[in-house]
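User: Run a structure prediction on this.
Assistant: Running it now.
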Amino acid sequence: MVRGKTQMKRIEDAASRQVTFSKRRNGLMKKAFELSVLCDAEVALVVFSARGKLYEFSSSSINNTLDRYQMRVKDAGHLTIKAFEEDMEHEKDDTQTLAKKIECIEASKRKLLGNDLESCSMEELHQIENQLERSLTIIRAKRSQLLTEQIDKLKEEEKKLLQQNTRLWEMCSMQPLRASRTSKHGDDHGVFLPQTPNMDVETDLFIGPPKRRRSGQNP
């Protein structure tokens, strides 16, 4: 029969709680003894029951083991404090280094903007000039790239609009005809006219002042 998993909570029944305490206390003492013998370890075990009764086990002397424990804890405390102080020193050094880097960056920024140049030597001014020229080259290249992308985008939009225009002409069953007219300044203006059925139209062209028509003639 498989034993169910024990829930890790306080046993409410006093008798069951006492039985469980006795069994597990004995098992704990046995494990401590086995650990000291098999592994040659210094083991000290102290248990107080709910009623305050003391149970203890020690592989040598429990007082010596407790004294050794106290010394180790004290040394560990000193080591912890020392390690903390060393970490604080490292953090302080890192902070100072970072502050110096920020100060150098701010000074370089002011010089690039044309400020605080009085203390600069010719070599430093030459370096600043070269840096600005490199920056301008990069900026101009980026600007040209953006302009090229915008032009390509506009061309693509123009192509789409032309395709839409062609589809609209096809839907309306109209073909674009180019009729040219000449303005008084001699400019040729192209006009697109829709296709219309063939019609014969006669026109008379009169040059000069209009002539009087005889009465009785059809206008």
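The longest helix spans residues 62-112.
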